[in-house]
Write a structure and sequence with these properties.
CATH topology: Rossmann fold
Order of helices and strands: EHEHEHEHHEEEHEHEHEHH
CATH superfamily: NAD(P)-binding Rossmann-like Domain
Strand content: 15-25%
Strand order of the largest sheet: 3-2-1-4-5-8-9-10
Number of strands: 10
């Protein structure tokens, strides 16, 4: 199975780590320092021996595929610093780059007229950036079948082989082929990243309940 490095050991990273490890992948959770997110580390360790821990630079260097699950507003600087380690690899970006409103929920985009994924691809020309899983609450990423309505996961990226590989990983996470929408090249990520602006309004009205921004056909 594939070695998958996840940058970020918060709720998103730990959630993805557990499911990917359960499907047979070896997962490396990359933390900024060895004591970061000790509660998250304990939860991930419960996923079994296929989950290990390292600093983020080691994670980026040793994994076959890397997932960016770090905060989107600071991800560009963090990942640009890992340019050498990420060269030649697939980088799956699941973050949204936003500035918080007064209540801590997303308020504005950091890159209006662009997207974090586009900024990452420009900064990492030797890396195949694929944007996906950024239009839902984190628990839906690994359990899409729990929603009453079939959800949609969007995929954006310049490299077709990289997108095919990512589509396979989405299948491991429980996403059926009919639920996966390939939007095209990396510029299409600005559309899905903009979808995050609807999320705080839904959360304020309905609370922290699982949902995804999906297509209805």
């Amino acid at each position: 199975m594939t070695s998958i490095g996840i940058l970020g050991a918060g709720r998103v990273g730990v959630n993805l780590a557990g499911k990917l490890a359960a499907t047979g992948h070896h997962v490396i959770l990359g933390r900024r320092n060895p004591t970061e997110d000790t509660a998250a580390a304990a939860a991930a360790e419960a996923a079994g021996p296929r989950v290990s821990f390292a600093d983020q630079r080691t994670t980026a260097r040793t994994a076959d595929i890397v997932i960016n699950a770090t905060p989107g507003d600071s991800a560009l600087d963090r990942l640009t610093d890992l340019r050498t380690q990420l060269a030649g690899k697939i980088l799956i970006d699941v973050s949204n780059a936003t500035r918080d409103a007064g209540d801590g929920l997303p308020g504005d985009l950091c890159y209006p007229g662009s997207s974090l994924a586009e900024q990452l691809q420009a900064a990492l020309p030797d890396t195949h950036v694929v944007k996906t899983l950024n239009t839902m609450l984190f628990m839906v990423m690994t359990a899409p079948e729990t929603l009453t309505t079939p959800p949609t996961v969007y995929v954006s990226g310049n490299d077709e082989h990289a997108k095919t590989t990512v589509t396979g990983l989405l299948g491991d996470l429980g996403w059926q082929p009919a639920w996966i929408e390939d939007l095209g090249d990396i510029t299409t990520a600005r559309a899905t990243e903009a979808m995050i602006l609807v999320v705080p309004h839904i959360l304020r009205r309905h609370g922290f309940k699982p949902f995804a921004v999906s297509l209805a056909r």
